[in-house]
Amino acid sequence: MAPKGSSRVISKVVAENRKARFNYEIIDTYEAGLVLTGTEVKSLREGKANIAESYATDEDGEMWLINAYLPEYLQANRFNHAPRRRRKLLLSKREINKLQGAVNREGMSLIPLKIYFNERGRAKLELALGKGKKLHDKRESEKERDWNRQKSRLLKEH
């Protein structure tokens, strides 16, 4: 887990879950590694992955990314991977225990925010711990976003 003040260099964002910040109140974020096969990495580098409907869960003391879509790599023919297979997340034992406790006790969710390649060329997942927003909270977020847009237009005119 990177400290709040640190500046991680995100070189290339491959997939982003844009609806996550609208549907969930994000409490904390974590950086997790992904266990991938060679064809999955090549497919990620093409940039056509989708994590909109995916989520993370813990099973037997390990974290797993479920329902993330990484399309097949066309040049791999018979050595290809399954597009929606479960992928293991690489987190420290302390982080896994902390996330398990938050999910089990407080009813929070583990939401993948984005998949990116770091400066060393490793595929990483930004994982968030969040609570689901109620309908009135979503309306508040929408009002605030609209007001900020309108405010920037007004400032641009003058």
TrEMBL record:
Keyword terms, alphabetized: Cytoplasm, RNA-binding
Region (Disordered): 132-158
Gene Ontology annotations for the cellular component aspect, listed alphabetically: cytosol
Basic and acidic residues composition bias: residue spans: 137-158
Main location class: cytoplasm
Record CDD domains: SmpB
Segment forming the signal sequence: none
HAMAP family reported in the protein's UniProt record: SmpB
Similarity comment: family membership: Belongs to the SmpB family.
Protein function: Required for rescue of stalled ribosomes mediated by trans-translation. Binds to transfer-messenger RNA (tmRNA), required for stable association of tmRNA with ribosomes. tmRNA and SmpB together mimic tRNA shape, replacing the anticodon stem-loop with SmpB. tmRNA is encoded by the ssrA gene; the 2 termini fold to resemble tRNA(Ala) and it encodes a 'tag peptide', a short internal open reading frame. During trans-translation Ala-aminoacylated tmRNA acts like a tRNA, entering the A-site of stalled ribosomes, displacing the stalled mRNA.
UniProt protein name: SsrA-binding protein
Natural source organism: Xaviernesmea rhizosphaerae
Designated gene of the protein: smpB
